[in-house]
Amino acid sequence: MADFNEELAAHLEGGLTTVCHAWAITRKDGEVFAFTDHDMPLSFAGLEFRADTGLSALALAQSTGLSVDNSEALGALSDVSLREDEIEQGRFDGAEVRAWKVNWADPSQHWLNFRGHLGELIRADGGFRAELRGLTEELNRPLGRVYQKPCSAVLGDGTCRFNLAQDSYSQTLPVQTVEGGRRFAWQDFLSFDADWFTRGRLEILDGPAQGLWGTIKSDRIEDNVRIIELWEPIRGDVATGTQLRLVAGCDKRSETCRLKFNNFINFQGFPDLPGEDWVVSVPSSTNVNDGGSLR
């Protein structure tokens, strides 16, 4: 890259330049979309950059300190580039973004001048506006332990360490009935207790919505019909017969960790922390005030 920078710098110092911008978006599922604001496609860095997408960028703000680099990208929605339904489904949320300044007359002269992730995406009038967040955005994340009674881990993550692949904690099955991508129902699906999947996940395994998932709001049984409702609808088409996976839920309580998952050794909460009633306790004239506990 250093050689390319030197060549591009020499080109820029020449006065008459042939420079454009190029962008590559890499989604979390591995799909890569590459664009350029030049009027012809370009090829470099192992990518083919499309020229018919209408993607452009506003002024890029960068600094040498620790402030967050930021910019915005504008683009047109189309079936061959960024589709409206995929943005609506959240498939571009948190995608990696790379931006180059490139000599379109000699694409080997290119300089990577921005690297970060997509933030908020707004759709309007057949186009979109995407917020770009630089690498220093990660410095805004809170770090350290949270001292609280409930467990701070996510079920199955590196701190929880619970194996969700066990048959008694997940179930793969086809959709029988679905309403609005939010309410799912099955006849005679009674192999798990009611509320077993509450606060768990519903993951779509095939079809147009493959890869999407939702958090389960409630799991109940009514007249031998199991009804699972999500907090928010799946943002994609889910039809009868679509394969999905249900994952058991956890309410973060120590009793649940011990009895439902037998995983109390990895519990990440502090169940013996005193509650708010203890914090606001004060001496009372009706009690014995001998210097002992107020409880």
From TrEMBL:
It comes from the Bacteria. InterPro entries: Phage_phiJL001_Gp84, Phage_phiJL001_Gp84_C. Coiled coil: none annotated. This is Gene transfer agent protein. Residues 195-277 form the Bacteriophage phiJL001 Gp84 C-terminal domain. Pfam families: Phage_BR0599, Phage_phiJL001_Gp84_N.
